[in-house]
Task: structure prediction
Amino acid sequence: MLEIPTIETKSVETDSIADMMRAFDEFKATNEQRLAELSARQSTDVVTTEKLARIERAMDEMALKSARPAIGGSAPQSATGLAHKSAFDGYVRQGDTATLRSLESKALSASSDPDGGYLVPAELEANINRSLTNISPIRAIAGVRQVSSSVYKRPYATTGFDTGWVGETAARPQTVTPTLAATVFPTMELYAMPAATSTLLDDSAVNIDQWLSEEVQIAFATQEGKAFVTGDGVNKPKGFLAYDTVANSAWVWGKLGTLATGVAGAFPATNPSDKLIDLIYAVKAGYRASAHFVMNRATQSAVRKFKDVDGNYLWQPSYQPGQMPTLLGYPVAESEDMPDIAANSFSIAFGDFSRGYLIVDRVGIRVLRDPYSAKPYVLFYTTKRVGGGVADFDAIKLLKFGV
Result:
């Protein structure tokens, strides 16, 4: 009698992948035996049939367990995703590249480059991007697009579209073809280089994905957060404060409109909050519904002292975790990369950043393991490509602390 090897259904990690592969190999061998018996005798041995059925039931049970969300609510992974996760774990811990290279070769990954590192598992990439949104103030309120190429182009009409009203049966007049232009958002390479000891990597209790995510997310968030505000666009995103400005009364596309406080480096001594109201209503109604104030904590400290004529503070703290405080009813995003109040500084921005500022993420975060440059430590050169710039110049206005 043929015996079925024990097929254990363990956790949805390395062991479960190996078990599933062994089960599938056994399934294929048994099915080939069944087909051979059917060809030779026009029937199959009952033992072979029962063995095949038991293997199928075991495989179904393993597939069901792998589809259950892990503790914490994470989504189930495919067999390919689990294999990639296991191979990546082996690469980070022991430097094993064979399995990871084979998987990326089979996937025909255009962004895979062993000399520049290997792609992290999709789950880890999603976790890093999710963490960046939570700790990067501009990313949390801006528009975000993912691309597979190095450049994102966003077309817009420079002359507007010709529209009008017509009757149901009336002739349709010929419309004027709009003039189109494109705003280009190239993605730039952002890197971090966390270090680990051999002891840490050898410790099987350490969650490598969690460790790497925690190590790089702060570095990524700090660098990109600064670039989104003040970046000059050279090998980094272009920040919204790096664009040309013009008085809002003379606003034109391609420049950000500004309002002045009338006092160099300060609010007016009388009714200072009126300037904040002016800033709010400098933004068109269509943008105000999703608008945010953006300022650093020093500026926030100044405006949070403002009161209305009834003595009520205009600034209100958040009473729920994860929510922003509000100023005049609009949420305040605190960005330490905004300048302090000074002569002619643009220390407060207001507008709909989800339409006004666009962040472009290229799909794929790569890791290159370097055990040689800093012995006895192992370095992990981790890179992602990100770009950014103003997408709608009418959606964001700046408060100038000057005349």
